[in-house]
């Protein structure tokens, strides 16, 4: 069959609708490439994407900048010119001590640079959120695929496990078991307090987050496993491993990516909330959560110190959510909003 | 002469002398119907395929026709062993594969392949054409990594697609082209038997002929045997020298092309054929009488007693509910399962299956042939005598 005939035969497909304005070329456009095209046409999603990218780059750069001395989130600054000991260490000057040297002001009491702390806090908060999201996605995907594909008893077992996890009072448990588990982690692994706190937080967030992912993936797999290409693969003698990872997994990338981008901001706010409740990484190590928690104490006396971390959290959460929405729309243009 | 009950084994050569590659005998597939709730008791069975026997000659093709839900697709999936049959045997090259384990089936996967009905769902949308067609080679570790692409391109050329399209995705192709990709995948391992499950019914009519011609060319070139499942009688007539008609999990009539289309003996076959538009009749303005079947296909969970077709049969009598008609041979290559088998409008008044209208045996001549092949002798319906070749 010649190229000209193939051009004549091109018809819209029910499965993967493609954009109308596509030029025909010999190089195939994968469904992913088509999704990227759709994503780039959505202005709001692109803005969200740039914000997310900026935040990620900043988060990666923070440790490097600290090392070469551009930012300094830890060292105290008890200079009387900057903070006022008579007012309990409140920064001198307007709006929480904003100067060229300290663009977002300084921390009341300690005099540490707020920009440096927020910047580094983004790194810690995002690391914890992303790690927890990865735990949730991996556990949820594996269990979801197995449950959806196997059906029967295995499916029922995973289903009950999901119900059990969802019905657990997780916030209470996070609080109540925090000290015991963190101590146990420290004993087992020899980690110091804050890394152990981080491991605990990631583990608990992830292990309570997987049921949503597992449910989503199970539903997807239920419809995929009835498609004929699964039968075709079985007929070729494909192993279960090949069926799971080569045939099914590529078809659930889209919902996985979407849930990943939507779970991560949830965990950013969860980290902040848990910090307020006293779980997770402890000061002086900065996270968005414990900066905000500290800021709450000065909400009336040093408003900007409370405002900036709140803005940063809001920007990250909103842009990640918008980014996730954009990804979802791009991957599945038929989905209702 | 009393009833001859033939019990041929599946290795027996068929009447025509061509050795069968596939010989299916008394194949059964019962799907359990489970109750809802925590304790899922089996409350019944869907008798999707119930005692089907047929054979496919080497390099030949058998058509399997019937309406939706009659079990023809299930039969295809049993032959390819996507399902494990409840009973019966599937003789493939002299070996009964009905009870094979997945490990035993592995080498068999090269020999029996399948073409699926809907090319929109039978190709993984996330794989390129090259990955799809090359998958059999990778799974069976036939060629090294370097050997896959040349073979894929060769196969694309064989099925009439541009070999440069290996890196494209299924959604970039039309329905007909996608079906060609599916065919190429089935051909990759050079199978001896292809089960084609309605390979063209999802395609545009103008494309159907192209794909059918491609399948015929491939059959001739590579000597592949076909089990051709379809509901389009015209296409089956074009493709298959022998045709089996299924109704509700059973074969009601098997015959060579000429006998079946010119002299159908089972009322169900006659009804099916009357629904096929006839161009020649339309040209002269004539119209064939259309037999309209009343009602729906009965539930295969609880099929009717006796003859399964009796609830919709225009010529059914009381005896049809009492005695199930055996599949009996009525021509050199013609078998039918009906008490009142006869040409349209000339159905006999008394059963021809060796019983009277009350269902009692009369000792009349019957040549039963429940096995996969054909007998050497048959019952001549016009004379009521046993006849030989």
Instruction: List how many beta strands of chain A DSSP finds.
Output: 2
Distance between the termini of chain B: 18 Å
Main sheet characteristics of chain B: 8 strands, mixed
Oligomer: heterodimer
User: Could you give the order of strands across the largest sheet of chain A?
Assistant: 1-2
**Helix proportion range of chain B:** 25-40%
Keywords (chain A): Cell membrane, Membrane, Transmembrane, Transmembrane helix, Transport
Transmembrane segments (chain A): 47-66, 118-149, 161-186, 198-217, 248-268, 303-324
Subcellular location (chain A): Cell membrane
Main location (chain A): membrane
Question: Could you please describe the fold and organization of this structure?
Answer:
Chain B: This is Dipeptide/oligopeptide/nickel ABC transporter ATP-binding protein. Chain B: One of its GO terms (molecular function) is ATP hydrolysis activity. Chain B: Belongs to the ABC transporter superfamily. Chain B: Pfam families: ABC_tran, oligo_HPY. The complex is a heterodimer of chains A (337) and B (389). Chain A is mainly α and 337 residues long. Chain A has a single domain, classed as MetI-like (MetI-like fold), CATH 1.10.3720.10. Helices cover 67% and strands 1% of the residues of chain A. In chain A, strand 1 and strand 2 (90-91) form a beta hairpin. In chain A, helix 2 (31-41) crosses helix 12, helix 3 packs across helix 4 (114-150) and helix 11 (288-296) packs antiparallel against helix 12 (303-331). Residues 1-25 of chain A have low confidence and may be disordered. With 389 residues, chain B is of the alpha/beta class. Chain B has a domain at 20-33 and 44-111 and 191-296: 3-Layer(aba) Sandwich (Rossmann fold), CATH 3.40.50.300. The model of chain B is unreliable at 1-15 (pLDDT under 50). Chains A and B meet through helix 1 and helix 8 of A and helix 3 and helix 5 of B.
């Amino acid at each position: 069959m010649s190229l000209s005939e193939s051009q004549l035969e091109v018809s819209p497909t029910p499965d993967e609708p493609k954009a109308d304005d596509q030029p025909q070329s010999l190089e195939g456009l994968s469904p992913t490439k088509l999704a990227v095209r759709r994503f780039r046409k959505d202005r709001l999603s692109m803005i969200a994407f740039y914000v997310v990218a900026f935040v990620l780059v900043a988060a990666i750069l923070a440790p490097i900048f600290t090392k070469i001395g551009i930012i300094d989130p830890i060292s105290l600054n008890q200079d009387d010119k900057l903070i006022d000991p008579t007012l309990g260490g409140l920064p001198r000057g307007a709006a929480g001590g904003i100067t060229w040297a300290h663009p977002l002001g300084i921390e009341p009491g300690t005099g540490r640079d707020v920009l440096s702390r927020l910047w580094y806090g983004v790194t810690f908060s995002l690391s914890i959120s992303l790690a927890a999201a990865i735990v949730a996605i991996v556990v949820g995907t594996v269990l979801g695929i197995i449950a959806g594909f196997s059906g029967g008893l295995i499916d029922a077992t995973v289903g009950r496990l999901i119900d059990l996890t969802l019905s657990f009072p997780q916030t209470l448990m996070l609080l109540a078991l925090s000290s015991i588990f963190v101590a146990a982690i420290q004993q087992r692994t020899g980690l110091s307090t804050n890394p152990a706190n981080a491991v605990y937080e990631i583990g608990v967030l992830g292990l309570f987050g997987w049921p949503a992912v597992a449910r989503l993936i199970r539903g997807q797999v239920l419809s995929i496993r009835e498609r004929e290409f699964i039968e075709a693969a079985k007929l070729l003698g494909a192993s279960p491993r090949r069926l799971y990872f080569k045939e099914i997994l590529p078809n659930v990338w889209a919902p996985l990516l979407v849930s990943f981008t939507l779970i991560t901001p949830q965990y950013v706010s969860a980290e902040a909330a848990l910090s307020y409740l006293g779980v997770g990484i402890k000061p002086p190590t900065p996270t968005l959560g414990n900066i905000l928690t500290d800021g709450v104490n000065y909400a009336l006396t040093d408003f900007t110190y409370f405002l900036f971390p709140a803005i940063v959290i809001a920007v990250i959460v909103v842009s990640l959510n918008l980014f996730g929405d954009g990804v979802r729309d791009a991957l599945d243009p038929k989905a209702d909003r | 002469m009393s009833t001859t009950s033939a019990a041929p084994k599946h290795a027996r050569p068929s009447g025509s002398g061509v050795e069968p590659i596939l010989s299916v005998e008394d194949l059964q597939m019962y799907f359990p119907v489970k109750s809802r709730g925590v304790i899922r008791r089996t409350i019944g069975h869907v008798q999707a395929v119930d005692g089907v026997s047929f054979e496919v000659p080497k390099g030949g093709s058998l058509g399997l026709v019937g309406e939706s839900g009659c079990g023809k697709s299930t039969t295809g999936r049993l032959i390819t062993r996507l399902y494990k049959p409840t009973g019966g045997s599937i003789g493939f090259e002299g070996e009964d594969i009905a009870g094979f384990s997945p490990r035993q089936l592995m080498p068999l996967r090269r020999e029996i392949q399948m073409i699926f009905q809907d090319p929109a769902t039978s190709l993984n949308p996330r794989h390129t054409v090259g990955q799809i067609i090359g998958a059999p080679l990778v799974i069976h570790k036939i060629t090294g990594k370097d050997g896959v692409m040349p073979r894929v391109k060769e196969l694309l050329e064989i099925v009439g697609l541009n070999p440069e399209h290996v890196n494209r995705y299924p959604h970039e192709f039309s329905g007909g082209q996608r079906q060609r990709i599916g065919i190429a995948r089935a051909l990759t391992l050079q199978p001896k038997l292809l089960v084609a499950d309605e390979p063209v019914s999802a395609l545009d009519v103008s494309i159907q002929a192209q794909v059918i011609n491609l399948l015929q060319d491939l059959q001739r070139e590579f000597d592949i045997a076909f089990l051709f499942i379809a509901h389009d009688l015209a296409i089956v007539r074009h493709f298959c020298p022998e045709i089996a008609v299924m109704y509700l999990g059973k074969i009601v009539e098997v015959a060579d092309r000429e006998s079946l289309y010119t002299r159908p003996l089972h009322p169900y076959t006659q009804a099916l054929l009357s629904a096929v538009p006839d161009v020649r009749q339309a040209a002269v303005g004539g119209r064939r009488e259309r037999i309209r079947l009343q009602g729906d296909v009965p539930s295969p969970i609880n099929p009717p007693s006796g003859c399964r077709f009796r609830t919709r049969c225009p010529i059914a009598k009381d005896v049809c509910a009492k005695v199930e008609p055996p599949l009996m041979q009525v021509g050199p290559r013609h078998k039918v399962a009906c008490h009142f088998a006869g040409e349209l409008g000339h159905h006999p008044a008394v059963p021809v299956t060796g019983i009277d209208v009350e269902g009692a045996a009369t000792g009349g001549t019957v040549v039963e042939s429940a096995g996969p092949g054909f007998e050497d002798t048959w019952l001549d319906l016009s004379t009521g005598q046993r006849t030989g070749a």
